[in-house]
Design brief:
Elements: H1 6-23, H2 30-54, H3 62-73, H4 88-95, H5 97-111, H6 113-118, H7 122-139, H8 148-175, H9 182-187, H10 206-216, H11 220-240, E1 250-256, H12 260-272, E2 276-278, E3 297-298, H13 304-309, H14 320-336, H15 338-342, E4 344-353, H16 371-391, E5 400-405, H17 413-424, H18 428-442, E6 447-452, E7 459-463, E8 473-474, E9 477-479, E10 489-492, E11 495-510, E12 513-523, E13 526-531, H19 538-548, E14 558-564, H20 567-576, H21 584-587, E15 592-597, E16 616-617, E17 640-644, E18 650-656, E19 662-667, E20 670-671, H22 681-688
Parallel strand pairs: 1-2, 1-3, 1-4, 4-5, 8-16
Antiparallel strand pairs: 6-7, 6-18, 7-11, 9-10, 10-14, 11-12, 12-13, 14-15, 15-17, 18-19, 19-20
Helix pairs in contact: 1-2, 1-7, 2-7, 4-5, 5-7, 5-8, 7-8, 8-14, 11-12, 14-16, 20-22
Length: 689
C-alpha cells in the first residue's frame, strides 16, 4: 500500500503543502497558523529527504549539520513547545478540547517523518503527511467547518490502516539483519568525524558529541573491555539458562546515540559468537510507541514534557477493533518472518543514566485512557506477549542489560565513566560466593522481616515460597552479571498471602520520576494504600503514584523481593552525589528492593531456571501469573517497578524459618551474615572519606 505511485504522491503532496504554506502566510488565526506551520515543517522534511538521496546532506559541514538538525526540531524545543500545536494545551485552547487533542496528536505523529526520511523510508513519512493534508482540506481554512467526529475518524483510520505496514516493517527491522540501515553504517563508520551523529535524523545535542569524543579518547583495549562485559553477559545468560546459543543467529542492540564506537565493537564480538546484529529506531508511530518509553536506537530527547503529554495518545484510537487489527498485524508479521524469529536470540540493551531527573507537569487536557481502554490495553499487551512467545519461545531466548553514563551527569563525566567500567566488570566469582550465603540463609525460610532505620518507617513481613528439597531447589536467584549487569542481588517471587506491612523510602526515582517520602501499605501482597509528599495535597500525590506506578490500576501485587549486594555501586553513587541519577539497573543493587507488578519471571514461569550451583529456582509464579493457563490475559499487569531502600535506611533484614530460627542478614545498614562481611568494605571506606 505504502509504495503505490510513490513519486507521484510525493509530488502532489509537496505541491499541496506549498499552496497551504503560501495561502496561510501572515494570517494570525489559529487554523491558518497550524496549517501553515505544519506545511512548512513537512516541506523541510521532504527537502531533507531529497538532499539525503542526492548526496547533498553528506557534503555538509559539521556546523551546517548541527544547524539543520536544530531547525528540524526547533518547533518543539523548550520555549517553542509552549506555543506549538504539538502541545495539547495550546491545541485545545485554540480549537476546543476534543478537536485539539486530535490536532495535537497528529502534529506529534508528524515529528516521526524526520526519522523515516533519514532511513530512506519516504513512504512511511508520506502517510501521516497525507493524513494532515486530508484534515487541512476538510477544515477549509476554518476549524468550525469540520466536526470533531470527522477529525477523529480521519485520525483513527490513518492509525488503523497503517498499522499493518508499520508493524510488519518494525518486526523485520528487529529480526532481519540489514533491513534497517543502522548496523551496516556503524560497521563502516569513521567515528573521528562527528558528522556521523547526524546521519540518523535523531535530535543531537552537545552531550552526544561529547560522549562520542570521550569514547574516541579511549584505546581499543578499553573499548573491547566495555563491549566484552556486554557480549559475555549475553552469552552467560544462555549458558546459565541452559539454552542453546548455537541455534540463534541474530541479536538486537538497543542504545542511545553517541555510543556508536562501542556498538561497533559489540557488533564485532557478537559476530564472533555467531550472531548478526539488528538495530532499529525507537518507535515514532503511535502504532508501536510504548507510552513515553524508548525501545530501540534513539537520540537526545528534544522535550521530555512533550513526550509525557503524548503518552496516552492511543486513547484517541484504542477500541476493540483496533486491538484485533494490531494483533492480526503482529501475527501476520511474525508468520512472514517465522524462520528469522526462531533464530532471534533476544535483545542486548544499553541503558544510560545521568540525565537531569524529570518532574512532569500534568496537562489537564491531554488524552487519558478510560477504564475500558485500560482493560483493552492490558488485553493487547498480554495477547501480544503470547504471540511473541509463540514465534520466539521464551525457553529459547535470553537478553542482557547494561548501563553507561552520559555527559549530562556533570563535570565528572569522564571519571564516572571510568568507574562505571569498573562497576560493570566486578568479579562474578566473588559475588557469586557471597550471594550464595544469602540465598542459603533465605531459601527455606517461612518469611523475611524488613525494618527501617534513621526515620524510615518500613515494617514488612514478606512470605517466602516453601522449599521441599534444599539440595536441588532454591527460592532465591543468585543474580550475577549475565542478563542483568552489574552483578549484585538475590531475589525471589514473594508469596502474596501473609505479605503485609509498610514500605517507606525518603526519596526514590521510579520510571524516571521523583517520589519524596514514598509510603506504600501492603495487605496479603497487594497495594492497599500509598502516599508521597511531592505535592501540596495528599490527593495530588496519590494521583501521581496511581498514574505513574500503578499505571491506572487500583492495586498491584508485590512481584519481587530482593536484596541488593553491590555496596560498590552504593558507594559510587554517594561518592559522586549521583544517587538520584542512577538507573534502576544499578540502583536496585544498592539495597533491598521490592517490585510492584509482574514477577521477574513474567511469561517464563514454565521454563526451568537454575542458580550457578545447579539448584533450580522454584519461586517463579504467584497467584496472578498462575492464571496464565486458563486466562492468560488476566495473569499479567505488564509492568514491573523496583523500589529500592538504601542501606543507611535499613535497620534489619532477618529470615525467619518454620522452626522459629532467625538468621539476620543486614543490621543497621551493614551485612552481618557470616561470609558476607566483605560487602561492608565499600561502606566503611565511604564513612571514612
Amino acid at each position: 500500500m505504502f509504495e503505490d505511485n510513490l513519486e507521484e504522491r510525493i509530488s502532489l503532496a509537496e505541491e499541496r503543502l506549498r499552496e497551504f504554506a503560501s495561502d496561510t502566510a501572515g494570517r494570525p488565526d489559529p487554523t491558518s497558523r497550524w496549517i501553515g506551520g505544519t506545511s512548512r515543517f513537512l516541506l523541510k522534511v521532504f527537502e531533507t529527504g531529497k538532499e539525503l538521496k542526492d548526496g547533498t546532506w553528506g557534503r555538509l559541514s559539521l556546523t551546517a549539520m548541527r544547524e539543520r538538525n536544530r531547525v528540524l526540531y526547533e518547533g518543539v524545543l523548550p520555549g517553542a513547545y509552549e506555543k506549538s500545536f504539538v502541545n495539547p494545551a495550546v491545541a485545545c485552547a485554540a480549537f476546543g478540547e476534543k478537536k485539539g487533542q486530535v490536532i495535537s496528536a497528529l502534529s506529534y505523529e508528524l515529528l516521526g517523518t524526520i526519522g523515516w526520511v533519514f532511513e530512506g523510508k519516504t513512504a512511511f513519512a508520506l502517510a501521516p503527511a497525507e493524513t494532515f493534508l486530508e484534515m487541512a482540506c476538510a477544515v477549509k481554512g476554518d476549524m468550525n467547518r469540520v466536526s470533531t467526529e470527522q477529525l477523529r475518524d480521519i485520525f483513527y483510520w490513518f492509525v488503523s490502516d497503517t498499522s499493518d505496514d508499520y508493524i510488519e516493517d518494525r518486526t523485520a527491522d528487529m529480526l532481519v539483519p540489514g533491513h534497517a540501515p543502522f548496523a551496516g553504517w556503524i560497521r563502516d563508520c569513521d567515528f573521528t568525524d562527528l558528522r556521523f551523529l547526524y546521519r540518523t535524523g535523531e535530535y543531537v545535542t552537545p552531550d552526544q558529541e561529547r560522549l562520542a569524543a570521550a569514547l574516541n579518547g579511549l584505546d581499543a583495549e578499553q573499548i573491547a573491555k566495555m563491549a566484552s562485559a556486554f557480549t559475555e553477559g549475553y552469552r552467560r545468560g544462555f549458558e546459565l539458562g541452559r539454552k542453546d546459543l548455537s541455534k540463534k543467529h541474530t541479536v538486537s542492540i538497543r542504545y542511545e546515540a553517541g555510543f556508536e564506537r562501542l556498538v561497533a565493537e559489540e557488533i564485532r564480538q557478537f559476530r564472533a559468537l555467531g550472531l548478526e546484529t539488528t538495530i532499529y529506531r525507537s518507535a515514532v508511530s503511535l502504532v508501536s510507541r510504548q507510552m513515553d518509553a524508548r525501545v530501540g536506537f534513539f537520540g537526545a530527547r528534544p522535550n521530555r514534557q512533550m513526550e509525557y503529554d503524548h503518552r496516552y495518545d492511543d486513547a484517541l484510537v484504542l477500541d476493540a477493533a483496533f486491538v484485533e487489527r494490531k494483533l492480526g498485524a503482529l501475527t501476520h508479521a511474525y508468520e512472514l518472518y517465522k524462520d528469522e524469529a526462531l533464530a532471534f536470540g533476544g535483545p542486548a540493551v544499553m541503558e544510560t543514566f545521568g540525565q537531569t531527573p524529570f518532574s512532569p507537569c500534568t496537562c489537564p487536557v491531554a488524552p487519558v485512557r478510560s477504564s475500558v481502554q485500560l482493560k483493552l490495553d492490558r488485553k493487547l499487551r498480554a495477547a501480544a506477549g503470547e504471540i511473541t512467545n509463540r514465534y520466539i519461545p521464551g525457553e529459547q531466548r535470553s537478553f542482557t542489560i547494561i548501563a553507561w553514563p552520559t555527559p549530562q551527569i556533570g563535570p565528572d563525566f569522564e571519571k564516572i565513566l571510568a568507574d562505571t567500567v569498573r562497576l560493570n566488570t566486578l568479579s562474578n566469582a566473588l559475588y557469586g560466593k557471597v550471594q550464595q550465603k544469602i540465598t542459603e540463609a533465605l531459601s527455606g525460610a517461612a518469611y523475611a522481616l524488613v525494618r527501617g532505620a534513621a526515620g524510615n518507617s518500613t515494617n514488612l513481613r514478606v512470605s517466602l515460597y516453601p522449599v521441599s528439597d534444599s539440595r536441588t531447589q532454591s527460592s532465591f536467584e543468585n543474580c550475577l552479571a549475565d542478563v542483568n549487569i552489574p552483578v549484585g542481588e538475590v531475589f525471589t517471587t514473594p508469596v502474596l498471602k501473609g505479605t503485609s506491612g509498610v514500605l517507606n523510602v525518603s526519596r526514590v526515582y521510579l520510571n524516571g520520576l521523583r517520589f519524596d517520602d514514598l509510603t506504600i501499605t501492603f495487605e496479603d501482597g497487594m497495594v492497599s494504600g500509598y502516599a508521597c509528599s511531592n505535592f501540596q495535597t495528599a490527593e495530588e500525590g496519590k494521583a501521581y503514584f496511581k498514574e505513574n506506578v500503578l499505571f491506572g490500576n487500583t492495586t498491584l501485587p508485590m512481584g519481587e523481593f530482593a536484596i541488593g549486594t553491590n555496596t560498590e555501586a552504593y558507594a559510587f553513587g554517594r561518592r559522586y552525589g549521583i544517587e538520584g541519577k542512577l538507573p534502576i539497573l544499578i540502583a536496585e543493587k544498592t539495597g533491598p528492593h521490592f517490585a510492584l507488578g509482574d514477577t521477574c519471571y513474567s511469561h517464563e514461569e514454565d521454563n526451568h531456571i537454575y542458580n550457578p550451583d545447579g539448584r533450580e529456582i522454584i519461586a517463579r509464579e504467584n497467584d496472578f501469573s498462575r492464571r496464565r493457563v486458563k486466562d492468560p490475559q488476566d495473569a499479567y499487569f505488564n509492568c514491573h517497578t523496583d523500589i529500592t531502600i538504601p542501606y543507611d535506611e535499613i535497620g534489619e533484614i532477618t529470615a525467619v524459618w518454620p522452626d522459629g530460627r532467625r538468621v539476620t542478614i543486614i543490621r543497621d545498614g551493614r551485612f552481618v551474615l557470616p561470609g558476607t562481611e566483605v560487602l561492608n568494605a565499600p561502606l566503611d571506606a565511604l564513612r571514612e572519606a
